[in-house]
Amino acid sequence: MTAEPTDTDALVPRHQSLAVEEFFYFFLRLRKNEVRRVARLMAERHPEETPDQLARRLVDSKTGLSLLGGALLNMPWLLPGVGQALKLTGVVGAGSMLTRMHLYLILEIAQVFGEDIDEIARVPEMVAVVGATGLGAATPSLLATYGMQPLLMVPAGSLSMTTVTRLIGWSAIRLYSARAEARGLSDGTEPDSDPGAMPA
Fold it and tell me: Superkingdom of this entry's organism (predicted)?
């Protein structure tokens, strides 16, 4: 005889399964201890700042990396002597790196806002990030089909991926700050930051 679920059971966060954890670890090299370390380091270095401000710092730190990553992603297309297989290998490698960077970004932002990064609710958020990164990475290649010169694909790739990084970061800030505010209101306390204050 099974026990009936209670209201309390519905409030208990469900954690990701071992299969999900291992997928993100082995295929995307996602290390959650590193996510926690970076979030803790940011809080220690800037104890006077709100979670919103810390999250913006995280977005800024990843923007420079995405600029470089977007250039590396499209660099193989400038080498006409390189075989198609080697070009695709370079694209896949850079794409995997950028996907991993964006996963770290949203989990670090979630961590500074007090979210449980092991909760199953993070899975669809991470899947959305993987999809957004793929679309950003594909943009220069799509433009090439319309006659874009190979030389322009590198700056186009950098700008495309930087835009994706900023959009992912700002969307994460909006999502997690709203949840933090809701938790604060339900606890009868004031939220730490204003979720409506988004970058221009």
Answer: Bacteria
Residue 141 CA to chain centroid, in angstroms?
Answer: 22
Q: CB-based contacts of 171: which residues, under 8 Å, 6+ apart?
A: none
| Calpha distance 47→49 (Å, rounded) | 6
Beta bridge partners of 119: 15
129-172 pLDDT, tens per residue? 998 888 887 776 676 677 767 677 778 888 888 999 999 999 99
Token pair of 109 as six digits: 């932002």
Alpha-helical (H) ranges within 75-121 are 84-112
CA-angle at 197, arms to 192 and 198, nearest 5°: 125
Cα–Cα distance, 56 to 91 (Å, whole number): 28
Distance CA 36, CA 167 (A): 22
Give the closest residue to 121 by CA, choosing from 20, 52, 199, 39: 20
Three-state secondary structure string covering 23-70: HHHHHHCCCHHHHHHHHHHHHHHCCCCCHHHHHHHHHHHHHHHHHHHH
The reported pTM is: 0.78
Q: Is 3 helix (H, G, I), strand (E, B) or coil?
A: coil
Q: How far apart are CA 83 and CA 13, in angstroms?
A: 49
Q: Phi first, then psi: what are they for 15, rounded to 5°?
A: -90, 160
